[in-house]
């Protein structure tokens, strides 16, 4: 796994993506609370996804996608999937947690970040990181951390390799698309804009605006409902264990994107296969296979 520390956090030149071939005015954003799909939404929010609930979805390692023809939509996580944002999140958490004396003031490790923070939404992180804090105090910490993330991201965030090629492939075929994320809305909008996809997505679904965020399937189920697409005619891209579980539990194949998280963890979470980035021959071989079908 590439080192999070090894990435530069500060850059002398802001990253811009205004020349992205899919760049247009910002995408339509809807409130996801009005969508409902399954009785599972009655389960209490912020609980962990039981691992046994994934047993109905077999894990595959072949570079093929079990999508029922025709392919009608692709859904994307944002953080770590569209852009390599985890090093910035890691830096912000490491600096701010050390300031408040987390873990006795010892610096946050990459392993702890990957296993306990990456892919989770802030409400849940309040309980994970600060079980003894008042919730409002913990949320204030998270809000300050997100402000730090946005400041750093606006200076140096870049898209994952091959994203422009994949977006053109999707547009040329008229496929529907949505961004589905646990990131706060201001973060999500910033990242989408910075990679030049402000209007590429028909829909932006925010986990905290759903009944339950990832790792539960609600954000993906809401996106599918809004797009009027059955899960067997779509698939998702995810870089985290939490997001992979959410996509699989929504009934879709999930392609893992190994920007930072170990491949083994993504496969164990249910990813059909894992790619390095959007230039990976495994992805394009799978897409060609779908077109032949």
From TrEMBL:
Report the cofactors.
Answer: Mg(2+)
Q: Which UniProt keywords apply?
A: Carbohydrate metabolism, Magnesium, Metal-binding
> One Pfam family, short name please?
HAD_2
Q: Which SUPFAM superfamilies match?
A: HAD-like
Concerning InterPro entries, the annotation shows: Beta-PGM-like, HAD-like_sf, HAD-SF_hydro_IA, HAD_2, HAD_sf, PGP-like_dom2
One MF term in GO for this entry? metal ion binding
The keyword Magnesium appears for this protein: yes
PANTHER family reported in the protein's UniProt record: 6-PHOSPHOGLUCONATE PHOSPHATASE (PTHR46193), HEXITOL PHOSPHATASE B (PTHR46193:SF18)
State the protein's name.
Answer: Haloacid dehalogenase-like hydrolase domain-containing protein Sgpp
Whichever gene encodes this chain, its name is LOC113726923
């Amino acid at each position: 796994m590439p080192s999070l520390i090894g990435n530069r956090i500060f850059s002398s030149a802001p990253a811009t993506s205004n020349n992205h071939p899919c760049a247009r005015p910002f995408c339509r954003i809807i409130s996801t609370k009005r969508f409902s799909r399954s009785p599972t939404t009655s389960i209490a929010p912020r609980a962990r996804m039981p691992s046994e609930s994934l047993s109905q979805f077999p894990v595959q390692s072949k570079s093929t996608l079990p999508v029922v023809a025709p392919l009608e939509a692709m859904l994307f996580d944002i953080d770590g999937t569209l852009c390599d944002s985890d090093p910035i999140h890691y830096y912000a958490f490491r600096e701010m947690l050390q300031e408040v004396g987390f873990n006795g003031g010892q610096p946050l490790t990459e392993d702890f970040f990957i296993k306990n923070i990456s892919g989770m939404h802030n409400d849940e992180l309040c309980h994970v990181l600060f079980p003894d804090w008042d919730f409002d105090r913990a949320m204030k910490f998270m809000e300050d951390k997100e402000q730090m993330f946005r400041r750093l991201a606006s200076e140096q965030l870049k898209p994952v390799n091959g994203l422009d090629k994949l977006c053109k492939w999707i547009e040329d075929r008229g496929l529907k698309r949505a961004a589905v994320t646990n990131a706060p809305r201001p973060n999500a909008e910033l990242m989408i804009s910075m990679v030049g996809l402000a209007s590429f997505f028909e829909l932006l679904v925010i986990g905290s605006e759903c009944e339950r965020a990832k790792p539960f399937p609600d954000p993906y189920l809401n996106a599918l409902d809004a797009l009027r697409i059955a899960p067997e005619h779509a698939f998702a891209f995810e870089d985290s264990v939490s997001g992979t579980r959410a996509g699989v539990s929504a009934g879709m194949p999930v392609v893992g994107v190994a920007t930072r998280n170990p491949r083994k963890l993504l496969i164990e979470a249910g990813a059909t296969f894992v790619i390095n980035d959007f230039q990976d021959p495994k992805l394009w071989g799978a897409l060609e296979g779908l077109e032949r079908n």
